[in-house]
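S1.2 Input.
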Amino acid sequence: MTVAFENKLVALVNKDIDVGVAMNGVAHMVLGFGASHNRDLFRLDNYQDKDGNIYPNISQAPFMILRGKSGEIRKAVRVAREQNISYGVFLDTMTGGTYLEQLERTQATPEEELVFYGAVLCGPWDAVSQMTKRFSLYRGE
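S1.3 Output.
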């Protein structure tokens, strides 16, 4: 049985950064993104094993992690803004020092100078597919 999903959830990761930094960025983006949306958007379900153990809040929908360059991620975020598609980002200014220093550093940096470590997008399946069609699957290499 094939299930159609109205929305597509995708993480875009900068292919030029270290895997550990990339995973840290994905964790920050998805945590913030998920906290700002309701569980229905992600079609979250509780899974249960035969012994009755519950594994909560697992999405029924696929979640692709793709890779690209900072400029490609920036462009996808711009398109998401234009099309009113939900997004989250993780930037180079969001690492090092305290969170207050990170906030100040981000506020002091023009968008064109930011290095996009990643973005997460969620919106209508076809629109997100069109935005991300040039990205390749992230392999952690």
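S1.4 Remarks. The CA atoms of residues 13 and 118 lie 4 Å apart.
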